Amino acid sequence: MGCNRNCGLITGAVISAILAIFGGALIPIGDYLIGRAIKKEAVITNGTIAYANWVVPGSSIYRQFWIFHVLNPSEVLDEGARPKLEQKGPYTYRVRYLPKENITENADGTISYMLPNVARFEPDMSVGTENDTFTCLNLAVVAAPSMYPSGFVQLLLNTWIKSSKSSMLQNRTVKELLWGYKDPFLNKVPFPLDPVLGVFYPYNGTFDGLYKVYTGKEDITKTAVIESYKNKSDLSYWEGSCDLVNGTDGASFPPFVQKSQILRFFSSDICRSIYGVYQGKQNVKGISLYRFAVPREAFASPAEVADNYCFCTDQVISQNCTLAGVLDIGACKAGRPVYISLPHFLHASDSILHDVEGLSPDEKEHETFLDIEPTTGFTLQFAKRLQVNLLVRPTSKIEALSKVKKPYVFPVLWLNESAVIGDEKAEMFRKKVTGPVELLGVLQMALMIAGSVLFIAFMGAFFICSSKKLK
Fold it and tell me: What is the pTM of this model?
């Protein structure tokens, strides 16, 4: 009788130990199986989950615009006073909803494509209509001295500016400012140039690209990484390493993302590659994500971050590369004095922020971030935020700008391009990706814990029974 009981306890302990060991063994086996499945489905080739989400975005992408309205136009024009600004918005457009075009799988393990540019106004997500009118910067007049530095040419331009009754400021509708209007000053110039001007003109009906990215089929660590943009691996806008096209387009990254990584991505909107660093965990629709945000160091002055030196091209505004927060992208915009920053000059030097009134930088509202599912590398939520500014500089040859007291960066608008995975896509993702991974993890832990507890219980019972028998 005693032998049967003791044998049973020993047998239970052995089985429990086997369960615990099996649970532990499931960790490398499970990781291997998951890795194998992800490597199969994360590559950008026809028939995979990644390809289906890559051709057409898996969620609606929107661009919200806030226009900076000038509250004191008379003082700015007549006295050269600091502009008092008030943001108006959002005015929301749905973008990136058309599939990629000219998709070509290449023999070298890459795939090529073009991104169609399209924007559809969403009145239900906007504070007003596209015909809402604001007092804003005159894009053509302000750009004139930077594009035509010759004093003689500026005198000629002044004649056409005066005859068109143009000034440093103008009244424009949202639609005109964003997508284009026939400028009265440019329309007077007797040179063969396009008189239509807008912050994003031309946009609808155009394409961004040609992009060429690695599929990941030959090397999973290169999945979605850009091999070339417009058939070049550099941009010809910057010096040294700053000029390289680095990383992905931000829609996805190579799988198995680690918190310690620096995720690099290229944005044609800011004419450069940039990067995100791990900030924390997020849970979106039941899916655990890693948030990577663009850090303050990405816009720091070269005096603080030496690697940013090759982005410093304007010695006047940057005060010999000692100021932070704005990026001169004039070389990318046909010589126009366009400066990019984070909204409300977030992370910019105080002197840049204080050249205008009415801005209130807020990290939570104005930062750029990407929320990434770490196993697949897919971006399931993001917010790309940036501000478009123009350099205003004084010149005695152009009367409309003669009251300007010093060069400064004038905000025109800021935008938030954002998306979050849709409910249907999230359910599919939980079922096919995160669900099995979590289930396997739970199974591993359950077997190890249950096996260990039962092993201890059986062995404890065995020793108790043995000690009683000895008595």
Answer: 0.86
